Input
Amino acid sequence: MKRKAKNEGYISARESHRISRENRRVTSAMERARERRNVPPQEYASQMKNPDSIVEFDDLHTYFFTDIGTVKAVDGVSFSIPRGKTVGVVGESGCGKSVTSLSLMQLVQRPQGQIVSGAIRFDSEDGVVDIAKMPTEAMRRIRGKQISMVFQEPMTSLNPVFRIGMQVDEVIALHNHALSAEAVKQRTVEMLEMVGIANSQGVYRMYPHELSGGMRQRVMIAMALALSPRLIIADEPTTALDVTIQAQILDLLRHLKDQINSSIMLITHDLGVIAEMADYVVVMYSGRVVEKGTVHDVFKNPSHPYTIGLLNSKPALNREVSRLYSIPGKVPNPINMPDYCYFRDRCEMKTDQCICQYPPEYWISDTHTVNCYRYAPAGREDEPHA
Ligand SMILES: Nc1ncnc2c1ncn2[C@@H]1O[C@H](COP(=O)(O)OP(=O)(O)OP(=O)(O)O)[C@@H](O)[C@H]1O
Ligand SMILES: [Mg+2]
Output
């Protein structure tokens, strides 16, 4: 969509009005498609590129149509989550990690937030589906039951006016209509025990404010795992907790994942958490994936200048530094993205080539890719990482 800012960061009332009218036109067409009823499943059936994947994001674009312009929060993201594995997604605040996961759940704030193009293939109980094409009605069968989510702040995700037991019961009952109230309660108590809550009968009757942060996070995990989902999305699951509790919660998540045989998409700022938990890493920057590979690939041979900066800005015991490294500059404005590499203006390794179009994906090994011209085949001989 075309926008014309008179001065940097300033848009006239008339222009804003025009944008908002145009946005309404675009989003209402998309909303109509989403709200269609009785859509035949063939319309959103799909096929995995790799049969071992549980999820494949394929060139996903999720935009927010705001009055000051279109925010390209997710701008061509592709990566896959293999069955039974944990994929860690890292990147600076605002780079689109949460919007990527919310797109997978179809929970992006509508109507301004919309999946504009691309595919999100998910291996559901009824075969592979493309969530990007799925109407809301069909998505309800997947959300919660087959894909569940553990949020960052459990106090805001649990309802303060209902007892813990009732909230977990509700999740279980919603997808198991045949269970009696007694059986649902029994399952809830079992789940609370499974996540390591000792006084499960007592906690069943408590309100969220009566629990500690760690306990609330355990309840959230119990709710997320109650229906043995195929995929768990954990968005900063331990950021609000102190480090000892963090280690316990991560251990618990890892242990339970293996028990119910699911996969995890783990979103975090914390590279330590990724190193401990994940099998694969996806590094995002300004709505795009800039590097991906196994944990070993990315930690042993970080290749994108942003990943290198990210790893250097992490404190390490075996390295003496007077000041922690910080990446210079700031993230580009998501409304006016440049045509060239989004990291170029902050990059200490930029070359003349970097002013041309956005860099494609280059393979460094069978499992490791990076979007950076330093790895373009012609420059490979003198490239230490290649
Ligand atoms: N409802 C919304 N309306 C408009 N813009 C939004 C909305 N939600 C998110 N955005 C924008 O989308 C971009 C990506 O946001 P996102 O929440 O995915 O970041 P993140 O990587 O999860 O960051 P953090 O690490 O801080 O959680 C940001 O520029 C944000 O401002
Ligand atoms: Mg987030």
